[in-house]
Amino acid sequence: MRAMRTADRSARTDVLALAALAVVMASAGQASAETQAALMCRAYEHRWEVVSGGSDRTAMGRVIDLIPPACADLRARAEARLRDIEAERRRAMAVERAAPASRPAAPAYAPAPAYAPAPPPAPVFTNAELDRKAGDAYARRDFVAAQSWWRMAADRGDAEAQFGLGRLYDLGEGVSLDYAAAQSWYRKAAAQGNANAQNNLGTQFVQGHGVAQDYAEASRWYRLAAQQGLAIAELNLGRMAEKGMGQPNDSAAAMQWYRRAFDHGNVSAAERLGVMLHDGVGVAVNYGDAQKWFRIAADHGLPQAQYDLGFVYAHGDGVAPDFGAARAWMQRAADGGVAEARAWLAEPHPQPLRLPTGDQDCPNIVRGFDRLMFGGDREMIASAYFEKSNKEHTAGDNDQSAFDATCSLFMDPVHYGAIAYSQRALARYDRNDPAGALADLRQAIRLDPNVRQYRWVKQAFARWGIDN
Question: What is the pTM of this model?
Fold first, then answer.
């Protein structure tokens, strides 16, 4: 230590001596400016060589601070050397931290190293965590945040996130509506077997959103999703079969798909089963079973089923007419957004029709002949009831006309479904029951679109402000 101080003093003396010599020579006019600068720089270079051989970085820094601008090259070399020394010190410290047991004790005179804590690592979320965060944001209707979380997971190939992004673009939630982008994300998710994405692709092809309408392609995607037990896809296949979308009407297949969808938890399927049984869509009319399916869906809070149940009670279809129950169910349906229920509540209603609940309630005598004389030919019996209904309506007996039209419907819904519904609608129309008449008309038109051409149908639609 004493030797280092002695050397330091000696070096300082050398520097001062050289500096003094440069000053003297300058005053005597014995040296040019270049010579003076060279002597000065040589003095500081000598000083730097002394301190740079040790480990005192503070002393080195002081020498660098003293070097004049005229010695810029020396200063640059000194600063570079100090940086190298500092880098070597940091590497040595890193090695020591990696092997603390072998680290020697620091010298008593060594200055304490500066410590700066490392920044915390950025959080890394799994795809499942990103999906959960996106789902929570979507439930809060924070679509921008949902899109951000789903995007991170989707870029990693997560199928659930790809489906979520597709739905945002499909509905224009938090992003601009973009069916092409929706389909692109749906396809990525569907290729990985995501059933919801497969179902939504099917719906795009049904609706022609971003693609040409293609029922066959829609059915293909729905079936892929239905094979995985997705209830909404089974419901959609039932609707396609019921309405004959890209295929002949197939009521039996429709009911099978609806039952599968209901078994997998879809209550809308229960409502569709009720409609088919109530209206005799490809099956025998069965008001009792229809009412049971309507009740199941209505009790689960489905507004359309609540309207259906209100209609059943208002018109006494399979149950005793009950305007109190009808109004209560219609109110629940109206609160749920069903426009037809609001219209029903706003209108005055006549006493409900007394209608048969099955063909066993229809009279045996038709047109003066016993039903047995027709030899069980249900089409002939239906024809007899229809003719009787038509004559009763002409005579102004609308209640009995509606009753016998219903009997015609019971006996042969295949051949007499459309005209029996339209006949009963006419009777209801003339007894100031527009809600009942409209419901029957819609069923008649569904079975035979030509019903729209009837003069009185056009008049009724015009009166009710409905586009025919």
Answer: 0.56
